[in-house]
Amino acid sequence: MGIISWITLGLMAGALAKLVLPGRDPGGIMGTTLIGITGALIGSWFCEKLLDKPIEAHFFDLTTWGSAIGGSLVLLIAYRIVFGHSRD
């Protein structure tokens, strides 16, 4: 996949992670995109190295989407633990 595909996948995975874990987080759309892209990369690395499940280079592959959303959820939870879960 190209860089535009990873950004699109990251944005969608980050948005789905925010949908599953709603709350007020700083960062807005840019934070969501960065969490999603980083989560997609971490999730795909985890699947390839630790679960021995290679990630296909196709945008519509279910494993790619699952690892991206899972990685985004883990990152969003870690982000909330480290920086607090809401702004007051």
Description of the structure:
This protein is mainly α and 88 residues long. The protein has helices spanning 3-20, 28-49, 62-83.
Q: What's the helical proportion of residues?
A: over 70%
Number of helices: 3
Whole-angstrom Rg: 13 Å
Per the principal axes of the C-alpha atoms, what is the gross shape?
Answer: globular
Structure summary, number of beta strands: 0
Spans where pLDDT lies below 50 across 5 or more residues: none
The helix-and-strand class reads: mainly alpha
- Ends apart, CA distance between termini: 39 Å
In N-to-C order, the SSE pattern is: HHH
Question: What about the largest sheet?
Answer: none
Beta-strand residue percentage:
under 5%
Mean pLDDT across all amino acids: 76
What are its keywords?
88 residues, mainly alpha
How are the SSEs ordered, and which strands pair?
Layout: H1 3-20, H2 28-49, H3 62-83
Helix pairs in contact: 1-2, 1-3, 2-3
Structure summary:
The protein is mainly α. Helices cover 70% and strands 0% of the residues.
